[in-house]
Amino acid sequence: MRIDQIELHNFRNFEQQTFRFPSLFTVVIGENGKGKSTLLQALRLMVGTVFSAFTETKPIYIQSEDVRRIELENRFAPQLPAEIRASGSLKNQPIDWERIKRSFNGESSGSRNLHAILSSLEKQINTQLIDDVDLPVLAFFSTARIGIEPKKDVPLKTKGSKIADGYEGCLDAQPNKDRAFSWIKSNYYKSLKGQNDRLLKAVLDAISQCVPNWTAVEWDEDSDDLLGIYRHEDGSETRMPLYYLSDGLRTMASMAAEIAYRCVILNDQLGSEAVKQSAGIVLIDELDIHLHPNWQRHVVRDLKAAFPNIQFVATTHSPFIVQSLDSSELINLDMATDLQPKDLSVDEVSEAIMGVDSPYSIENQQAENVSTAYFQKLDDLGKEPEKKQSLFDELDQMEAKISDPAMRALLQMKRLEQTVKH
Hints:
alpha/beta, Rossmann fold, five-stranded antiparallel sheet
C-alpha cells in the first residue's frame, strides 16, 4: 500500500490543502502550529480505512475535534463537511478513496476498489486458507512513544490470527511495547528447540540496523530482555540488555521491533525476506526525539535500509535530519523551496529551508539595534545638555553590549567627538 497524494478540506487547521508524496520517505517540517501532526493524523485516518474492510479489525473515524472551526467574537463555528481524499496504490492497482464527515453524527466513505481488494485478501486468507498472500504493514508512532516504562516481565506470545494480530493497535496513539518483544521471546525459545528461526533473524537484523553500536543477538533469561552486543568507542564489546541502553536507543529499538514484528506476522510467507519485502505505510511524529545529532544525520538512511519497501512519513524539527534528505523527500509547511538539503551546511539548512536565524544573524541584528540607539543618544547630548551624566551612563551600558571590539572603538570615537563638540 502506498499514498501518493492526500487532499484535506476543513480538517483541523487546514481549510484546503493538497500534499504529494513522490518518494518512499517523506519528512514534514514547519513551525509549531503549522500542521505537521495534523497531516499525520489525516494520513492515519486514510490508512485506517483498511480496518473498515476487514471483519477482524475495528474502524477508526474522523472525530468531532477534527472539524475545522472559525473563531468568531463570541463562539467557534464548525465548518462542515470535513473531507479527506487520497490516491495511491495497493497490490499494484491504483486506488482512490475518501472520508467525509458531513455532520457530527457520523461519516461516510467511498472507494473505487480499495474495499474490494482488501475483502478479497481477507477471503483468501481466512476462507480459502491461502498462505501466499501479502498484506500491507501499517504503523503509527505518536510522541507518546517516548515514555520510558519501568522494567517488567515480558509475556510469551501465543498463536493468533494473522489479520487481527498484524493490525492490533497499529494506529493507536498510545504504544504497546509488549507485542513485538513477546513475539521475539517466544520465537527465540522455539529456535532453541530447532524450529525455523528465519523470521526471528529478520526481526533482530532490522533492530540492529536501526540501533547504532548495538547488535541484537538473543533473548536473555536472567534479565528477561532482549540481549545485544554493545560496541564502545574504543572498539571493545559488552553484552548488554536493551533496558540498559539510553532512552534514545531503547525508543528506536522498540519502534524498529514493532515494524519488523508486523512485517513477519502479516507476511510470514516471505520467510527471511519478510521484513525487507513487506510494503506498507509507517507514520512517525517527531522522528528526532531522544536522538543525538550524530544519529539524526543517518536515522533516515537506517530506516530505509531496514525497511526498503515501507513508505515512511515523519515530522521533525531537526536540521540534521533535513540535511540528510533529497528535496523530493521534504514537505515544508513554512515556505516553498527547491533547494537540495544535501548540498547545504546545517546552518544553511536552518536559515534557508527552516527559516531559523543563525546565532550570528541574531547577534548582528542585536548589535545593529544597539548601535542605532547609541547614535540617537549621541544626538541627544546636544539637545539635552542638562541630562549629560545620565546619557553617559546609558552610553556606557550600550558599549558593554557590543562584543565586536572594532565596533566598540568606533562608537567610543564618535562619542568623544560629540562630547568635545558640546
